[in-house]
Design a protein that fits this description.
The structure holds two protein chains of two kinds. By secondary structure, chain A is α/β, with parallel strands linked by helices. Chain A has helices at about 10-25, 35-40, 60-65, 110-125, 145-155, 170-180, 185-190, 210-220, 240-260, 290-305, 320-340, 355-375, 385-395, 400-410, 425-430, 435-450, 455-475, and strands at about 30, 45-50, 55, 70-75, 80-85, 90-95, 100-105, 105-110, 130, 160-165, 195-200, 205, 225, 230, 265-270, 275, 310, 340-345, 350, 355. Helices cover about 45% and strands about 10% of the residues of chain A. Chain B has helices at about 5-15, 15-30, 35-55, 60-85, 105-115, 130-140, 150-165, 185-190, 200-210, and strands at about 90-95, 120, 140-145, 175, 195. In chain B, about 60% of the residues lie in helices and about 10% in strands. Classes of the chains: A alpha/beta, B alpha/beta.
Chain lengths: ~475, ~210
């Protein structure tokens, strides 16, 4: 039986959803994009262009909920299926869009070489099934900082990519890079390669860029994850239920935009809410209430019939320390038990602003442990039990019993060398190295072991041509060296 | 792949029937007993040991390989005696006096045999006198003592002291192990070596035998 965690009963879920719908139909949504407002107007919404405002209708919301898919699949750069976002399937993705990386205990701005190491590392982390455009390199013009991350990800790692565009214009190059990999728009639609994060702005607003990104993705069949970010007690009610009402309203408005643009467009009902820590004026992702809101809105998303996502398996610590471990573990465990389909966060520190390759290696093990956890406890060859106990009493151990050999690997998860399970004598003999040292060593091993992407030379040449042309538009004649 | 290499590969797979079959073929083909032992069985087990130390295989695979190795050794043993070829070494093992927990000791025994070492297993609750007398009678240069209980650890010292009393220290070496035991404790009681787990115990015994 798969273990499960729930916070909301059906009655409370229905009340929260009804309240959110009421907000969307009465107070409405602010959308700073006339094309999106017109689109919603064409579908029967009450639009006030001068105030950049729209009131949705129950009919429009019902129509969106009727067409939004209950799941979708994701495929890697080679075209192999890697994800099935349906039911309670759980997949992990690194936290994305950090502006710093942790390098030998010091935070600094990342450059191209850091990103290539990250992408190579991601190839070797078996429990994190997708890569994200995890941080922003500072050695290219700001205008291409979003597309350049996607370019590097596609060049150096075959895993599908969770990404996002920072401008409306950037969508075109980010779509073209994907078309270069897939070969055609039809093939890209049939086998999605990326998920775009699209963020409403609290309270209940959409910017010009993010609302347009929702529409553009929907029309190309590129899946979107909605990242609503209510801040409890600051830009949202302090009560967790109040924050959930706001999150539901913001996310439902995104679903309506997406389905109005292209009925059946794939989405993840996601988010990155947080409480607001009034002592430090910060938004702790490791706070238990933040994680409770994440799990609860996932229940609402599933109740509405959508696969879900959350920024939850991460920490606000500044180093790879005990806080980094416990906050990430708690979030990942709660998320997995809640059946959140896409769990974002591994590698991330400092309020989603800093990525750490060493933390990614550690978090990979946390992801493996939680994936084992949600497989639950199942009877295998356990009844009747007499034969196995007869064998145990006869042989005095079961280490090489056929029963052990048949079930060892499906029953027991053995983490990689970053998790210390040696006895203390062996630990001392093998150098007595710390978690951080083991993680650093594992990063180097996995980066060195990474095989080149199996994308054809024609595809990588085309990716390079497209990215170089884009860089030249913004004054950079050649891309940073990648030797 | 020649027969000896195939013996090594079959050991790594834990295929005991295949190891026995290949060992028989090698004997019938007139290959020297020393070559079959050193280049086939022991060579194969050395590779298994390296893979285990690098965490590329786990304990069950090592034990399966050890079991397969034993099948090969069983076939070679009469020929070794006939040709006067000694085993890799000989070790007396048992649990400390008062201690009935023999799982760890059994594991070490299997691993030692897998390394081609002859093992005289005295079982559990073994007195110092019995350890020392047996080692002397069998001509075993190493005694291995295991304990699970902190209350029985102290009897390990009895074996070391008895060897000293009889002037056998340096001639018969001691190795200790078990959950509550540590390198510091081994140093404290004057034991010659300490194995922190079964695989490490084999390495330590080999070092004591001078065959590492």
């Amino acid at each position: 039986m798969r273990p499960a965690l729930t916070f909301l009963g059906d009655e409370l879920k229905t009340k929260i959803i009804d309240e959110a719908r009421h907000l969307l139909c009465t107070l409405g949504v602010e959308i700073h994009n006339p094309r999106v407002l017109a689109l919603l107007g064409d579908h029967g919404a009450d639009v006030d262009l001068s105030k950049q405002h729209v009131r949705l209708t129950d009919g429009l919301i019902d129509q969106a909920l009727a067409t939004v898919p209950s799941g979708f699949k994701l495929y890697d750069a080679i075209g192999r299926q890697t994800h099935d976002f349906s039911g309670d399937n759980v997949h992990f993705t690194p936290g994305s869009a950090a502006i710093k990386i942790l390098d030998n205990g010091r935070m600094r701005k990342p450059v191209t070489g850091d990103y290539i190491r990250y992408a190579k590392l991601m190839s070797g982390l078996e429990h994190i099934q997708a890569q994200s455009t995890a941080f922003i390199t500072t050695d290219v013009p700001e205008e291409i900082s979003d597309s350049y991350r996607l370019f590097l990800s596609l060049m150096y790692c075959e895993k599908p990519v969770v990404t996002g565009a920072f401008t409306i214009a950037a969508f075109d190059i980010m779509r073209d890079l994907q078309l270069a990999v897939r070969g055609s728009a039809e093939e890209l639609k049939a086998k999605p390669l990326t998920i775009f994060s699209c963020c409403p702005t609290s309270p209940i607003k959409w910017s010009d860029v993010t609302s347009q990104n929702v529409v553009d993705c929907a029309r190309q069949g590129i899946p979107v994850e909605f990242i609503s970010m209510p801040l409890s007690g600051f830009m949202a009610p302090v009560t967790l239920v109040g924050s959930l009402i706001q999150h539901t309203a913001e996310t439902l408005s995104g679903v309506v935009i997406s389905q109005a643009a292209s009925p059946g467009a794939p989405v993840l009902y996601g988010g990155s809410p947080a409480i607001f820590d009034i002592r430090y004026e910060t938004t702790p992702m490791g706070a238990v209430e933040t994680q409770m809101i994440d799990c609860a809105y996932s229940e609402i998303g599933k109740h509405l019939g959508m696969p879900t996502q959350a920024y939850i398996g991460m920490s606000d610590a500044k180093q790879l320390d005990a806080q980094a471990g416990f906050e990430t573990s708690m979030g990942a465990t709660l998320a997995a038990l809640s059946g959140i389909n896409s769990i974002s966060g591994p590698g991330m520190l400092d309020f989603e602003s800093c990525q750490s390759l060493e933390k990614l290696v550690v978090d990979n093990e946390i992801c493996g442990l939680t994936q084992r956890l949600v497989r639950g406890i199942e009877p295998r060859e356990d009844f009747p039990s007499t034969p196995i106990f007869e064998e145990l009493l006869r042989d005095k151990h079961l280490l090489i019993a056929d029963h052990t050999r048949r079930h060892l690997k499906e029953e027991i998860f053995f983490p990689g060398p970053v998790v210390d399970r040696a006895n203390s004598s062996r630990w001392h003999e093998e150098g007595g190295i710390t978690l951080h040292e083991r993680a650093a060593k594992e990063v180097e091993r996995l980066v060195a072991a990474c095989a080149p992407s199996a994308l054809s030379d024609d595809v990588t040449t085309e990716l390079d041509r497209l990215m170089t042309a884009e860089a030249r538009r913004f004054g950079m004649q050649s891309l940073p060296g990648r030797g | 792949m020649d027969i000896l290499q195939e013996i090594g590969a079959s050991l790594r797979k834990g295929d005991d029937n295949r190891v026995a079959e290949l060992t028989r073929q090698a004997i019938d083909a007139g290959m020297g007993v020393g070559a079959i032992l050193d280049d086939g069985l022991i060579g194969g087990m050395n590779v298994v040991g390296d893979l285990f130390r690098r965490h590329e295989i786990f304990l069950p695979e090592v034990l399966l390989a050890a079991r397969a190795m034993q099948k090969g050794i069983d076939l070679l043993k009469p020929l070794m005696i006939e040709e006067g070829i000694p085993a890799v070494g000989k070790v007396v093992i048992g649990t400390a006096q008062g201690d009935l927990h023999d799982i760890g000791k059994n594991l070490v025994g299997i691993m030692l045999k897998g390394a081609g070492i002859e093992v005289i297993d005295l079982g559990n609750d073994v007195s110092a006198e019995r350890f020392v007398d047996t080692a002397v009678e069998a001509g075993a240069p190493v005694i291995g003592i295991s304990a699970l209980l902190t209350t029985t650890m102290s009897s390990m010292k009895g074996v070391v002291d008895l060897l000293r009393e009889r002037g056998l220290n340096g001639k018969i070496r001691t190795i200790i192990g078990g959950a509550p035991v540590s390198k510091d404790f081994a140093d404290e009681i004057g034991a010659d070596a300490y194995g922190y787990d079964a695989a490490n115990a084999v390495d330590q015994v080999k070092a004591l035998l001078g065959v590492a």
